[in-house]
Backbone:
């Protein structure tokens, strides 16, 4: 099964506020963009992914991610994360009604294409499925097979909310790169230890991060 991924990205100036203890106001937008670039590049390199649609109103992010090969979808609802994902999935299916759709977080800078392929292969067995994040509270990936709605319920306790919505929780080992989203300094240190993409590595090299070389 081939998938179309929908990746939501808020305006860079407002992204990643919880990283304020690690990255200052000037650096955080660059870090958020680097996360998204490495996430999208890895997703597009995955054999199971047909294309990636990024839902964003950020002009810089739109240009940079389009240059990688992503389709840019304006966030017309401007109603938050779940509205953006539902809108993106609707746009995707307006030009490819029978496609399998997955929502993927934009902050997975250590994402590995082969691990993403394993997760999507497992998800293909179910009408809707999801992968919990590394903290086992949130969600990094939500899938919907053809003829099923995505029904995103991201936000606080999204693992429980997606399970309650009827989506099947995927229980897979050795897919850490698909689980490791980055919201805090500790998350970033863990992602760096896993091995992040080149854009995140370049921005993070200018940060003083305890526990990392030069930190």
Residues:
């Amino acid at each position: 099964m081939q998938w179309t991924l929908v990746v939501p990205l808020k305006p860079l100036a407002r992204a990643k506020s919880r990283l304020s203890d690690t990255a200052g106001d000037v650096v955080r937008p660059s870090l958020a963009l680097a996360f998204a670039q490495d996430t999208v590049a890895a997703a597009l390199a995955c054999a199971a992914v047909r294309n990636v649609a990024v839902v964003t109103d950020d002009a810089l992010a739109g240009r940079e991610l389009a240059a990688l090969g992503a389709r840019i979808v304006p966030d017309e609802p401007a109603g938050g994360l779940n509205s953006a994902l539902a809108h993106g999935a609707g746009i995707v299916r307006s030009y490819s009604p029978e496609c399998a759709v997955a929502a993927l977080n934009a902050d997975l800078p250590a994402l590995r294409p082969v691990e993403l392929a394993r997760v999507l292969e497992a998800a293909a067995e179910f009408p809707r499925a999801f992968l919990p994040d590394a903290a086992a509270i949130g969600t990094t990936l939500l899938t919907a097979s053809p003829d099923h709605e995505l029904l995103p319920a991201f936000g606080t306790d999204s693992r429980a909310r997606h399970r309650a919505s009827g989506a099947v929780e995927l229980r897979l080992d050795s897919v850490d790169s698909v689980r490791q989203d980055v919201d805090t300094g500790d998350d970033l240190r863990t992602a760096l230890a896993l091995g992040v993409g080149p854009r995140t590595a370049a921005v993070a090299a200018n940060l003083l991060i305890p526990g990392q070389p030069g930190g």
About this structure: The longest strand covers residues 49-55. Residues 28-44 form the longest helix (17 residues).
